[in-house]
Write a structure and sequence with these properties.
The complex is a heterodimer of chains A (about 250) and B (about 475).
Chain A: E1 2-11, E2 14-24, E3 29-33, H1 40-48, E4 54-62, E5 65-66, H2 72-77, E6 80-83, E7 90-94, H3 95-109, H4 117-130, E8 141-142, H5 148-162, E9 166-170, H6 178-191, E10 197-202, E11 215-220, E12 223-228, H7 231-239, H8 242-249
Parallel strand pairs in A: 3-10, 3-11, 6-9, 9-10
Antiparallel strand pairs in A: 1-2, 1-4, 4-5, 7-8, 11-12
Helix pairs in contact in A: 4-5, 5-6
Chain B: H1 2-29, H2 34-50, H3 66-69, H4 86-89, E1 100-105, E2 108-109, E3 117-119, E4 125-128, H5 129-135, H6 137-141, H7 155-162, E5 167-171, E6 181-187, E7 193-195, E8 198-203, E9 208-217, E10 223-233, E11 238-246, E12 251-261, E13 266-275, E14 278-287, E15 292-301, E16 306-315, E17 321-330, E18 335-344, E19 351-361, E20 367-376, E21 381-390, H8 394-401, H9 407-423, H10 429-444
Parallel strand pairs in B: 1-6, 5-8, 6-9, 7-10, 8-10, 9-11, 10-12, 11-13, 12-14, 13-15, 14-16, 15-17, 16-18, 17-19, 18-20, 19-21
Antiparallel strand pairs in B: 1-2, 3-4, 4-5
Helix pairs in contact in B: 1-2, 2-7, 8-9, 9-10
Classes of the chains: A alpha/beta (about 250), B alpha/beta (about 475).
């Protein structure tokens, strides 16, 4: 699904990711953990295709294609979804128009017929249910006036609408209370298929109680310094990151 | 030296207008009531003294009329047009949404059923200002020419002297009229044209009326329009005024609005600019006590268009609120300026006055300027102003594009959202819907204007953006 090789990414001349490598197979859930400033969000943005990130080396192979030259919107249309750590408020654009426009463009790219208004509406209702959004989300402006929890639920809702093949969730759990965390995690689990993959970026182990990863990676100083089974997350929770830092230093 | 040449040229046109007035006044104004003839005579004398505005005047710093005034406009007096069928020349998108429609064609009122002035069952009088001056002068004379203040430049005086027609609306006391009144001012000629439409609107005590005023043009020809509208809003009345300006690139539109509000009255004033060569709106509102005035504007300009919006709000008595909100999207080499001035007189305690101007520039060469000005002589007031000039938010663009939406459409979505804040305030539901569509089309580059529109803006961009109006 995703194969990142020797990726070096800089922002404003500063190297954030250094010879980064990651291999995610179909149907797998990978968790990426790491202390602040280790490069987690940079990784997410680089996969999604944010332009102010300068990739000086390496490649990102997605479904067998190097996507580094592919514009953001085409990466999304090819099935990559980024759940934002800080979802952006867009006053004046209703959720309905936003999602309708997105789905129309994605379907058009794939050569599929656009959904009828009725079918679209039905899909919205179904996916709202999934993340337990009960209010008239459709008429609200994108993320405007949403609480932190609502914004994250809205990310999962959008992911459900788009049904991507590769979802990168960037600290989707940050700022969530336990109920919202459960809702978000249930949403993710419901969307899991045999042929899609998730990269869950998180600070804390608690999300991984709900979304069980196949592999846990520790990102430190721009590269993965340790990978292991889900138990690695528990170990990190218990001991913090210092023992890994020491391990590297030693 | 160059300036001197320009001044001389302007002076020459001024002389020509003055001479033309002297030669033609009997022929064109002979059948007007004596008081109006005197007003016109006084006005041409004032114009002769003051002349055209120039850019050394602070209020005209950003509006350059020199080039426009040097076009040949032919005869300054025009013959009234007869038997114009407005439905044949004009089928705009905004047209015909259940309004009571009156229109002007090349500056002349278009008769309805052979009449230039209609008295409705509810007492509303509507039609041509000249017909009103002749047939019902009492309704016009009391406030005519008294709502506008004396100005340094002679444009208002030129309007008073030279106007050959205009809209007239008189709403008696206690009339709540649900049907929006639409005034369409259409320029439809290939010849150059200079006209000075003069409109007068009187809203009686405790009455409630909405007017939609459209400026359109559908032919290529320089047209210089120096329009002046006086609006008297009596106590406890409510008045909504929507101006939609969709002109071709050869047009110069100077649109002066003077509003006087008596106590406890409310007005909503919208200026929505889709296209035009040079457009300047001067909006002046004078408030008595317990009044409310919202003055909103939206301008979507590109190529070499120039737009100036000048707002002057005077709070003369206590407990009144005013709110100005102007937003603009400026592309290519277009220019837009906003000049918002609030004056709070000494007696006007407990005034709330806010103004806000926000601009998005879409190109390197686009320019926007804002000059907010608060002039406050009372000590217990709440006033604020804010102005921003910026680009589209990059974070928001990335967010939208990360959902599979193309950059072009992401930009349009953001611009639409920016404009929607003004459109959402429109209280006539059908008009709001139409405006929403027009804004979308304008942003897509398929200018909303009439089928006959010659701008061919849609050649510029072809987009597949789809905004959904199904109320899903």
């Amino acid at each position: 699904m995703l194969s990142i090789k020797n990726l070096t990414v800089s922002i404003e001349g500063k190297e954030i990711l250094k010879n980064f490598n990651l291999e995610v197979k179909e149907g797998e859930v990978h968790a990426i953990m790491g202390p602040n400033g280790s490069g987690k969000s940079t990784l997410a943005s680089a996969i999604a295709g944010r332009e102010d990130y300068d990739v000086s080396e390496g490649e990102i192979i997605y479904k067998g294609k190097n996507i580094l030259e592919m514009p953001v919107e085409d990466r999304a249309r090819e099935g990559i979804f980024l759940g934002f750590q800080y979802p952006v408020e867009i006053p004046g654009v209703s959720m309905t128009n936003f999602m309708r426009t997105a789905l129309n463009e994605i379907y058009k790219y794939k050569g599929k017929e656009p959904l009828s208004a009725g079918a679209f509406l039905k899909l919205m209702e179904e996916k709202k249910e999934l993340v337990e959004i009960h209010d008239k989300l459709a008429n609200r402006s994108v993320n405007q006036g949403f609480s932190g929890g609502e914004k994250k639920k809205n990310e999962i809702f959008q992911m459900a609408m788009i049904d991507p093949d590769l979802a990168i969730l960037d600290e989707t759990d940050s700022g969530l209370d336990i109920d919202a965390l459960r809702i978000v995690a249930n949403g993710v689990n419901a969307l899991k298929r045999a042929n899609n993959s998730f990269v869950v970026i998180t600070h804390y182990q608690r999300l991984l109680d709900y979304i069980v990863p196949d592999v846990v990676h520790v990102l430190y100083n721009g590269r993965i310094v340790k990978s292991g089974p889900k138990e690695l997350a528990l170990e990190l929770e218990e001991k913090g990151y210092d023992w890994i830092k020491n391990e590297i230093a030693g | 030296m160059k300036l001197l040449v320009k001044m001389e040229a302007l002076h020459k046109i001024q002389e020509q207008l003055f001479d033309s007035f002297q030669k033609n006044q009997d022929r064109y104004f002979g059948n007007l009531p004596q008081w109006l003839k005197i007003e016109k005579e006084k006005a041409i004398q004032k114009f002769q003294v003051k002349g055209f505005p120039n850019r050394s005047m602070e209020e005209w710093r950003t509006t350059n009329l020199e080039k426009a005034l040097q076009e040949d406009y032919g005869n300054y007096f025009k013959e009234a047009e007869k038997d114009v069928n407005i439905d044949h020349v004009f089928q705009c998108e905004i047209h015909n949404f259940g309004t009571l429609l009156i229109s002007q064609h090349n500056g002349f009122h278009v008769s309805k059923d052979g009449k230039d002035l209609t008295v409705m069952d509810n007492g509303i009088v509507i039609g041509s200002i000249l017909a009103a001056a002749r047939e019902m002068p009492d309704l016009l004379q009391e406030h005519f020419g008294k709502i506008m203040p004396e100005t340094k430049d002679g444009m208002n005086d030129l309007n008073t002297a030279m106007f050959q027609d205009g809209f007239f609306l008189y709403v008696p006391d206690n009339v709540h009229f649900d049907v929006p009144i639409q005034m369409v001012n259409i320029i439809n000629t290939t010849e150059n044209l200079m006209i000075h439409p003069r409109n007068f609107i009187h809203i009686g005590k405790n009455s409630n009326v909405k007017v939609v005023y459209c400026d359109d043009s559908i032919q290529h020809g320089y047209n210089f329009i120096n329009a002046l509208t006086e609006i008297y809003v009596d106590s406890d009345a409510k008045f909504d005024f929507y101006k939609l300006q969709n002109k071709d690139d050869q047009s110069i539109l100077l649109n002066n609005n003077y509003v006087k509000q008596e106590k406890n009255s409310e007005t909503q004033n919208f200026t929505i600019i889709f296209n035009g060569g040079i457009i300047r709106n001067d909006i002046n509102v004078q408030l008595d006590e317990y009044c409310k005035a919202d003055v909103n504007g939206l301008y979507l300009v590109d190529r070499k268009q120039k737009v100036d919006n000048l707002v002057y709000i005077q709070h003369t008595k206590p407990h009144s609120d005013s709110n100005q909100s102007f937003k603009g999207i400026i592309d290519d080499e277009a220019r837009a300026y906003f000049n918002g001035h609030v004056r709070v007189d000494k007696d006007a305690q407990k005034t709330n006055a806010f103004q806000n101007n926000r601009n998005i520039l879409l190109s390197q060469d686009a320019k926007a300027g804002a000059k907010p000005f608060l002039e406050i002589y009372a000590d217990d007031v709440k006033c604020s102003h804010g102005a921003t000039v910026g680009q589209l938010d990059e974070n928001a663009l990335f967010y939208i594009m990360s959902r599979g939406i193309s950059e072009k459409n992401a930009r349009i979505l953001l611009m639409y959202a920016f404009a929607a804040e003004i459109v959402e305030k429109v209280s006539i539901e059908k008009l709001r819907g139409r405006l929403d569509e027009m804004v979308t089309k304008r942003l897509k580059g398929e200018l909303s204007s009439c089928e006959q529109c010659l701008l061919h803006c849609s050649d510029k961009h072809i987009l597949s953006f789809d905004i959904d109006y199904d109320n899903v």
